[in-house]
């Protein structure tokens, strides 16, 4: 990721960029909204968004490009659950258009010259920030009138915690990026691996069908249902091991650091690459083999050997949100559809630097009896 491009697109006061006490303060504020008790309240909302999306974008179709579909789904879930914007929200539609343009610039060379991609994306970022500023003003007015609660959405939560408007805007933009591409990539590549590994697919299908049989027609998934999806999440973890959405991250040394006999001077950027441990046969034997059983006992994995969400004090605050969103989506996909790679789609992918499958992972789908949905 181009750090300068990211900062100019998203902002410089995000939980990603601040450090020390300021980082601890912003992170603690986010974790309070994204903690387990809060996420539990949103399972039904995620369930409704997934059902609606599959009805609109998958039902009645013979072929689907999974990655674009999952990007649209994760944006909808994020808009509803994190930001409290309903489907009829004009701001939601505006942000969707600007966001699709903005994220392309995060990976671009940061040259703000006319007619460059970066320039167009920077303009989209400015328009998106104005839209977010409007949301902040509207939520502040509702909060002051006593018409809302900090638990309603993360913008109101940050207002109640006293964050300045610019800092709220930066962190909203950051969350939109962090909650969008990464989870969409996870769901997409999980479907790709299940297509190629029939034994794993059969186990996921059996687990999800058992849960579906326990539900009444149209009944939303519950927190307890997600706890029964142990093999499905193990398959998702194995997908993250093999194809981590961000394959590397940059960190700046705050002081001189000596490591392995080398001196890393203060101020230098340090890049860690997830595949160095994810594909290390000393940690994960036969690393090229898709084997969800590796993650059925997470305690067997050494500390910092598996870091798709980062680690330590900067581990992703939204990892539980991503887990719930992934499990809800996979449940409805595998219980409602069968799929196989479409003719001409070989399942290969490239990075820019996020993984993106050939043809968006084009699959042929057929419905399963979905009377329960």
From TrEMBL:
CDD domains: CYP90-like. It comes from the Eukaryota. The keyword Iron applies. Its cofactor is heme. Pfam families: p450 (PF00067). PANTHER family: CYTOCHROME P450 26, CYTOCHROME P450 FAMILY 718. Belongs to the cytochrome P450 family. This is Cytochrome P450. It comes from Panicum virgatum. The lineage of its organism: Eukaryota, Viridiplantae, Streptophyta, Embryophyta, Tracheophyta.
């Amino acid at each position: 990721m181009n750090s300068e491009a990211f900062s100019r697109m998203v902002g410089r006061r995000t939980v990603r960029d601040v450090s020390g006490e300021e980082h601890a303060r912003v992170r603690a504020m986010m974790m309070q909204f994204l903690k387990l008790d809060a996420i539990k309240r949103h399972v039904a909302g995620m369930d409704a968004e997934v059902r609606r999306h599959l009805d609109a974008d998958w039902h009645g179709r013979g072929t689907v490009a999974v990655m674009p579909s999952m990007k649209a789904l994760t944006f909808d879930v994020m808009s509803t659950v994190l930001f409290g914007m309903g489907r009829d929200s004009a701001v939601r539609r505006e942000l969707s258009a600007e966001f699709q343009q903005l994220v392309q610039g995060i990976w671009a060379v940061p040259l703000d010259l006319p007619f460059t991609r970066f320039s167009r994306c920077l303009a989209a970022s400015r328009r998106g920030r104005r839209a977010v500023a409007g949301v902040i003003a509207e939520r502040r007015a509702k909060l002051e009138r006593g018409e809302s609660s900090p638990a309603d959405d993360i913008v109101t939560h940050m207002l109640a915690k006293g964050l300045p408007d610019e800092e709220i805007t930066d962190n909203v933009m950051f969350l939109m990026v962090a909650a969008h591409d990464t989870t969409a990539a996870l769901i997409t590549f999980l479907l790709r691996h299940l297509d190629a590994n029939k034994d794993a697919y059969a186990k996921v299908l059996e687990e999800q069908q058992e849960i579906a049989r326990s539900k009444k027609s149209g009944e939303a998934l519950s927190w307890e249902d997600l706890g029964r999806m142990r093999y499905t999440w193990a398959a998702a973890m194995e997908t993250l091991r093999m194809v981590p959405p961000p394959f590397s991250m940059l960190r700046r040394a705050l002081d001189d650091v000596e490591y392995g006999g080398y001196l890393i001077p203060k101020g230098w950027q340090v890049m860690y690459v997830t595949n160095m441990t994810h594909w290390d046969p000393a940690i994960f034997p036969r690393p090229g083999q898709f084997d969800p059983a590796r993650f059925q006992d997470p305690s067997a994995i050494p500390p910092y050997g598996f870091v798709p969400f980062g680690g330590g004090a900067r581990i992703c605050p939204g990892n539980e949100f991503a887990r719930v969103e992934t499990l809800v989506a996979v449940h409805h996909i595998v219980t409602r559809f069968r799929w196989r790679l479409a003719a001409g789609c070989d399942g290969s992918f490239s990075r820019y630097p996020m993984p993106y499958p050939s043809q968006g992972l084009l699959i042929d789908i057929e419905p399963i009896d979905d009377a329960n949905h």
